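pls read this protein.

:::
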Amino acid sequence: MLHSTVTPAQKRQAFRAGLDSGTIQRFPGAFTPLSAALIQEKGFEGVYSSGAVMANELGLPDIGLTTLTEVAQRGAQIARTTDLPTLIDGDTGFGEPMNVARTVQLLEDAGVAGVHLEDQVNPKRCGHLDGKEVVDEGTAVNRIRAAVQARRDPDFVIMARTDIRSVEGLGAATERAKALADAGADAIFAEAMADLAEFEAMRAAVDVPILANMTEFGKSDLFTVQQLQDVGVNMVIFPVSLLRIAMGAIERGLDALAAEGSLQSQLPGMQTRARLYELVDYAGYAAFDDGVYTFDLTNNRS
């Protein structure tokens, strides 16, 4: 009820333990706080908070228009609804190294378990679009160094994302990943890998955990969780999947309403009222209210 009873420190420790466990960690993307609760109920290891989803929810493209305040607020909303660790998209850190440092501390305050920071130029764009530009190695390394220096909880995970694969090729990506790991990154997110062999090459290049992004309609094929684990991937995200599923259902429902004048035909595909109430724990809130507002006033002499 209300907030998770697992502390941010405990979630961060769980995140690190999962990355070191030898079992791939599955982090579906939560497009609302309520969807984070459902991710937990379905048995996944963690929750991902995508920058693209945050922008799209606001009716914006993923081109660096969201603010740090908006990202931290959504991160806090998601983290409070689940006992699972949350990894959040920190884009480029919202500026220079000092801005990166502030980003890390505000996201720590939000209760998330970790953040990934990327090496694109500002303003950034979706990692699976053409025309990306990346910063030089020194700038990318300084972002990660600033993040590592700024964190107050040593268990808060600093993950470095590199988008250089689509710009300069796999060799540049593995070299960039090595430099970012040497700068203190706890894990590497190599964006837009072309195939399993490229994930395998990234695994061989660094000693820290690596992440795979299984976003639909992108530059990577949709490999299974087992295929990714077999080539040494430690964590996989499905960043926009739930938003796409939900928006597809909404569009189909609106089409039906426009054509039929009613949503009767859509009822079988809807979440029921009872299921929604179960997910938001109406019973728990009702029990709390009973305990607070039920008083015995028979002996009240005041």
In short: The chain has a mean pLDDT of 93.
